[in-house]
Each structure stands twice: as C-alpha cells, then as structure tokens.
Amino acid sequence: MFWVLLLLSAWAVAGLACLRLCLAAVRAAAVDPHAVGREHALTLYEAAFLSGGPRRVADLTLVSMARQRRLLLAHTGWATVVDPCGRDEMERSVIGAIGPEGQSRIAPVRSAAATADAVRGLADRLVGAGLAVPDGAPGVAAGVRRVRFAAVAVCALGACALALPLPVDQPRLLIALWFALPLTLTLGCLAITRMEVHPYSRWASPAGQRLISALVRHADGTADDRAYLTSVAVRGVHAIGEPDLRAAFAHREDYAEEHWERRA
Asked: Among 48, 90, 16, 58, which residue's Cα sits nearest to residue 231?
C-alpha cells in the first residue's frame, strides 16, 4: 500500500499549488485595472519594466542612448561613452556603470544598471501605483509555474507508484486512474487560468498589462523614434532592427559564460 502514500503526496502537491494560484488570481481580480491606471500614462522606462523587469530598462536605456549617438555599442559587445552627460537618472546609471574610463563590456553594464537606485525607485513607484507586482508577492505567473511543476510531480509520483510491485488484486489501471484525478485538477486549473487571466506577467499587474496594450496600440502604425523604442521596451532587444546594434547585445550571454568559467 505504499502507492497510497504517493497518491496522498500527489494530492497535497496538486492541491496546494492550485490553491495558491487561485488565491493569486482572486487578488489580481480584486483590483479594477481600469480604475487603477485611468490617470497614468506610461513612460518608456515604465513600459520596459512592466514588460521585462529591471534588465529590460537597462536594455532600453542603452538602445536609446545609442540611437542618439551619445553611446557607441559595438558589435563586439563593448559600450563606449560619447556624451558623458546623462539626461535622466537611468542614463546616469548606465554611464556610471561603464566607469570613468568610458568603455566597458555591455554585460556588466547591463547588470549594474539593472540594480541601480533609479530602477529600484521606478519599481517602487509602479508598485505603489498598482501597476507592478510587488517583489516576492505570489503573483499569477509564479502560481502558474507552481501548478506546472505540480503536474510534472504528479506524473512522476504516478510513475513511481506503477513501478512498485503490487498485489494481484490491485490492477495498475485503477492506480493510474487514481493518479489521473490530481493531474486533471492541475491541468484544469491551468486551462481555466489561461482562459480567464492570460496573459499573465511576472512584472505587470492586470492594470499594468492594460496600459502596456494601450501603449502598443498607440505606437502601431507610426514610424517615429518613440514607436521604435516602444517596441524595444515591450518586446526586448529582439525588436532591434539594426544588425550591428542587435549583434552588440548578442555578446551578453557569451560574456556571462566566460566570466563564470574564469571564476571557476
């Protein structure tokens, strides 16, 4: 009867994950997104944070300064300061991250700028306005990940139970059906969440997602520089059109791997 303990574990994992997801969805639905964001017009930095978090803000700042020819981003993955006078806190954070020599690899600049006080202040303002998910809060996106993990765990526990030697009077098909119940719970919870709450974001609250959608609709059909930067803020560096500029950001992962190999 050891399989019964595995079944109880499967129910516990599935039930707890689904409960936490439901509570997160209820909390998100309790806030009226239209009322929260009615008087708030998103800046590009805010849209970048809500779409991709602190590192997206750093990427947007780098791209914006590069397009203004105040920062040179080489295809080799290096950033060089052309204009040392930042026009706002984000730009000053990037220039400070590059250092007094005026040149640095893009990867450490991006990491340092993403953890700067300017980005933390931006995050606090968005959380206070009800547009961003508080750091560490059980959001819907985190709940969905837990339920997905629970579904995999239920399948693994079921496979372990079926692999055990069983008495003749306990058919394996019946045991599989018992494990199918918590699996159905997790899959059903995921399906309902996708229909009712999707798209769910790690960073943006429902009100923040509504404002991002409005910003994208407003930018669509225009070809000015703000529309370009809006696309980068919402979609990331993959939206960069210039091949050389896009190649500069392709060196971020290469630098990280090299950095950790040297430390090892």
From this structure: 48
High-pLDDT (> 90) share of the chain, %: 40
What are the contacts of 164-167 at 24+ separation with CB within 8 A? 164/2, 164/3, 166/3
* 237 and 63 Cβ atoms separated by less than 8 Å: yes
Pairwise CA distance, residues 69 & 208, whole Å: 31
Kindly indicate the confidence band of residue 129, based on its pLDDT and cuts at 50, 70 and 90.
Answer: confident
CA distance 89 to 93: 6
Mean pLDDT for the stretch of residues 11-21: 92
DSSP E strand stretches across the chain: 71-73, 78-81, 103-105
Can you read off the two tokens belonging to residue 168?
């003749």
Collapsing DSSP to helix, strand or coil, 253 comes out as: helix
| Whether pTM exceeds 0.85 | no
Task: Answer yes or no: are the C-beta atoms of 253 and 55 closer than 8 Å.
Answer: no
Phi-psi region of 112 (alpha: psi -120 to 50; beta: other; left: phi over 0): alpha
Quickly count: other Cβ atoms within 10 Å of residue 247's Cβ. 15
Which of 42-51, 88-97, 127-136, 226-235 has the least mean pLDDT? 127-136
**What DSSP designation does 201 have?**
-
